[in-house]
Amino acid sequence: MKMSxxxxxxxxxxxxxxxxxxxxxxxxxxxxxxxxxxxxADTENQPYGIKTKAEVRExxxxxxxxxxSKNVKAIVVACNTATSVAIExxxxxxxxxxxxxEPAVKPAVRYTDIENKKVLVTxxxxxxxxxxxxxxxxxxxxxxxxxxxxxxxxxQFAERLDFDETRITKYLENQFxxxxxxxxxxxxxxCTHFIFFKDMIQKxxxxxxSIIDGNEGTIRHLQNILRTKKSLNQGSGKVEFYNSGVIAxxxxxxxxxxxxxxxxxxxxxLSLGY
Length: 274
What we know:
With 274 residues, this protein is of the alpha/beta class. It is 44% helix and 17% strand.
């Protein structure tokens, strides 16, 4: 879907299978408050992490066509699963910057004392199966010091707005039961949904393990692209929310997003104590 350069483009599009991408949008609003945003959550079709690659690709392109029709100047695919499946083909189709997400393996390896410790990468089922992640680990020559752990159910917990610490900690303990935490220095949150549970994960793994994600790096990359194109700071921080193409209006839908933003602010405050 090519667009004329004469068409006005000033908003930034954010896309995710559900509400996980709000964690990236939240970081964008902190770092780029003078921009306007569109947030598209494919709520009718989430979660993506348990679908086939072909199913995810079809859903992603449908969503992208909608977002591009809003004359956005850039799109952040704020979903690790969608990025791993479709990012290269998206960039071939559209003539605006498409910024993807990937697990923050590179900074994690750089941060870790790899002579003595390892990195644990958490992600969804599909992300863990995709070649993109394994190629990234291979390119860093880090196969021996990077381990993988699936935390798929955290996506469903987040989408249900279920942040019950007792219930989620029980799930996490079960997933981590084969993991010897003494072996690790760094844990990567390889799905944007997982950030909603960062405080609970941190409590489980203790402060001896640093938890990182790719959100800030993604927004810095976006900033650099917009600065190069001289299209930075063209708005006022306004956000339009769409659920599978239907605009979210006052009421239950917007209240849901407000709850999630408050959850992120709560996690940031708690993180200061770790």
